[in-house]
Amino acid sequence: MNGSRSKYTAWHYIGCGCAVLFVLGVVGIGGCFVAAAWWGRQVAKEIKDPAARAAKAQSLLGYEELPEGYYPGISFSVPFAMDMVMLGDRELPEGEAMRRMDDGDIFRERGFIYFRIRSFGTSEQSFRQDNEFRFNVDEKLGEGDVEAGGADVHYVADLGTAHVSGHSMRSVSAELEIECGDGYKRHAVWFTPAPGADSETPAEAEPPAEAPAGARSAEFAGTPADEHALVAFLDHFRFCG
Length: 241
What we know:
Elements: H1 10-24, H2 29-48, H3 50-61, E1 71-78, E2 82-88, H4 103-106, E3 111-118, E4 133-148, E5 151-164, E6 167-179, E7 184-193, H5 216-219, H6 227-234
Antiparallel strand pairs: 1-2, 2-3, 3-7, 4-5, 5-6, 6-7
Helix pairs in contact: 1-2, 2-3
């Protein structure tokens, strides 16, 4: 994705995780600081080391092989609270160069963002309206339930504009609710370019003219709006392992 540079670097996500650790450890402040310090060092090591970065993503998503053209981005876990994985379409550098990476360096045109969060019975807004990932919907393309990745998955697929920390492009996006029945909420977004989209397309661009009804399924074949493609993509992972 092209556009203005993101203000969020890899360390933004580490900072969010530290905040979660602090809240969880408020009753044991001394232990919290020790845990947060250890956790921060561990995440920093995993982010800078490509092998550790790949191993972390693999441990959280349970894949044997990633879908073609996808690479491990930022992944981390906050003990007993949450896990996050970003898969992008760019191979990332190693070492200190990774400190300057942001979302725009992870995602060029497509990506997969996954969260596993401890459920406390609270309601949540649409995952696609998160501060780092927003999706402006122009047209709903489909909705349904599938079995994929060893889990029950509810999806909503839309055509619109994806905004990842300031980078915008015309995209097809599937917002996923993944159910494993274990007390965690799993949310994910898979997004790819819209048919005929140009990565230079600005966020305010008019949506393309609607295709005839009979051409819709063929038009979006292979995108997140294609249920067969969605299942094939998700079957690379084991969400409930």
